[in-house]
Amino acid sequence: MAFSNTRPLSAFPARATSAQNQVTVDEFKNIFTTACDYALPSSRYKKYKRVKVLLTYWTEDDLGFKNEVARLRDTFERRYRYDCTIEQIPAKGLEEALTWMMRKLLEFMEDTDSNNLLIFYYGGHACSARTPDEGPCVFLSGGRGQCFVREAKLDFTAAKKPTLDTASADVLYLLDCCHASKAAIKPGKELIAAAGVETTTTGPRPSYSFTAAIVQELNQAVSAKNFLAAAQLYFKLLVHKPQLDVTPAHVEAITGQQPRTSIFLAPLRNDFIVPYPLTGGDNLLLPGRKPSDIRATLFVRVRNEGHHHTLEHMRD
Description:
The chain is an alpha/beta fold. It has 7 helices and 15 strands.
């Protein structure tokens, strides 16, 4: 698993290097192109046949996530045409709350396959594990002082292990809570979190919030007839950092050397995209875009200042 805004170098095919661990211009170009194509593919994406969204928060909503969830659902339903469900987590006993969440997640996964996307959202309190039998991310119905009150906790790691972790569909987690990036995920899943490891956040505020920033970026993207890779959404959230109390985190799980395309968010509308014959018809191109439209600006320091032809070669 990688904590990265793109991917670790180990995610890409191994390449020969010199004794000083240098790479050639062609090797660098290949690595850079592969990283951009998988992490920030700006012209093509996997078209999901169906997208389901499960938005959750506690019945004891002392932080005020009800309005945040309503705005996010409105964006996903009205502008993206995703199937949305809102569920309030009951503040019951630990085992009862865990059973409730597992049942809801299994219902959420019904009739989905590898051509589908599942988006799980949680807004509320959370803490790190306080006992050896707890997972790394525990949802709470109250403040940090209730970490030790078993009746107020939900072990989300335990809830998703036999459910979302096994889903054949792509899964994107959006967690607006403290310690959110500690929610370990399996390969093929991605997480955008309001807070990093061992980091706390204040939750919704009258002026701004992590969820509000997500809603804003999703609405701006669809208004411009653009789509967002999860990594791109994360980059855009970083722009909001001065208004947020902590820096968001992006976590993607990968397996070995095999890279994969980041999860995409785009409206399920026939007029939003036009087919383009790329890889088996699964990838689609935005209207007016051609593969050659993709541009990148690189600032490169060449060790041997005298090799000006190296820079000319890179321009090719």
